[in-house]
Specification:
This protein is mostly beta strands and about 475 residues long. The protein has two domains: about 325 residues, Glycosyl hydrolase domain, family 43 (Tachylectin-2, Chain A, 5 Propeller), CATH 2.115.10; about 150 residues, Sandwich (Jelly Rolls). The chain contains one helix and 36 strands. The strands form seven sheets. Strands 24, 25, 27, 32, 33, 34 and 36 form a seven-stranded antiparallel sheet that branches. The protein has a six-stranded antiparallel sheet with strand order 26-35-28-29-30-31, with no helix packed on it.
Amino acid sequence: MGKMRNYYPDGMRMWDTWYLHLDGVTHLFHLQVRRAGGNRPDEDEGSIGHAVSEDLLDWTEMPVALHRGDPGDYDDGTLFTGCAVEEDGVIYLYYCSNHNENGRGRQAMCLAISEDGGQTFRKYPGNPIIEPDPQWYYSISEPPPPFKHHAHPAIDCRDQAVVKNPSGKGWLGYVVMRRKETDAFRSSCIALCRSNDLIHWEIGPPCFVPNRFNCFEVPDVFYLDGRWYMIALTGDGYGQSLCWSDPGITYATIVGVADHPEGPFSEIKDNLLLAANNNQGFSARTVEVRGERLMLYTRSENGLGRLSWPVKIISQPDGGLLPVYWTGCDRAFGMPKNVQPVNIQAGSEWNSHTIEDFPTAERTFMISAKIVLNDAKSAGLAFRHTGSGIDASAYLTMFDTEKSEVVLINLPGFIPIQHRRWEVKPYGIYNLRIIVVGEMIEVYVDDVLALQCYDDSLANGGVSLFARGGIAGFSDLVYRGEAL
């Protein structure tokens, strides 16, 4: 199998992902189901896929790591998320089993082991290895929880993350469970588990209880700059609403922080690593490679999920996290093409300037620019612009001082694709970076990831600059096409 940039498994739809960096190679494990029209055998349905990369951009698909069990087995349903760790030459691949028991979904954490560097995995004969302890959590031995939630009446026990215990022997595990409470928002939690051998686990009380999410999933735990962080996915699809100060956000990857890996973790409200107003960008997990903490996530797409390129995670002085541009992506692009600065003066209507020197037919490119708003109410950069002015089709990324937003829209018609509250002020100076790979779009503001999406509505086109309601300046204009 050849290498693939913007990886997705052949004939499959991918969603949750997790990673293991080992001997200069990063292993990607992911959930997958057959895509409509995909030519894959029945046994691959609901399996765990596997790919490897040396640079986190180009991936080679490997044979399926794990298949579902036979009918009646503990893992005869679609396999769900886990994690992977290595110890003494052995790879421990954790995964979530699903099994229907008396009309209820029974989730449990299970284990598979590889002793040949990830070429093959065998399931641990003592599976499942983790199930909810009824002392703290709803379990299969009890009636369903007395409320509705996104997976009712299933038993939550999934998406394990594992880290080595820095304060002594053994390992710490973090598993999505549901504690015994009277409503779903208070019950959603992450359970702390402990193990000395990566096989036998002791289930403990919760270590993260935000008390305001109906459900969250895909936790990841890591140490960075003196603090321990937990990130997790949640959103309106799980039943909650108005969870963030930006009412337009419907899905987000939240951040919790703690002084110790055992917790308790406290949510840093509105510290969102990924945020979108539809199901765009999810299942973020991180991996440490050569001293850098890198986040990858699944890009949403019609009937298909593609792996993102890495985004670097850095800490903030107040304990929060920022997703910033990773310079390792530079190798995907060719030599820069620069143009002279441009000033646009506009009245109440939009005024534009087309950059004739930038290509119009490339599908993969990166554009960067410094935008000085001066007294302009709005200003931005359009790409895949099929003509001139606001009446021609284009994607327009703009800064809006009136709404204090960064926005990605379709022209004509100013149809919103993604928008997010941002500190946009008159006379502000903003460094904009746009990465386009086919139908995949990422927008960075001052090198912080602000918007990301999939959109296939437009054809090829050029680059234009736009302003409204005053003067805006554009400088440091650089275009880089795909590296040959």
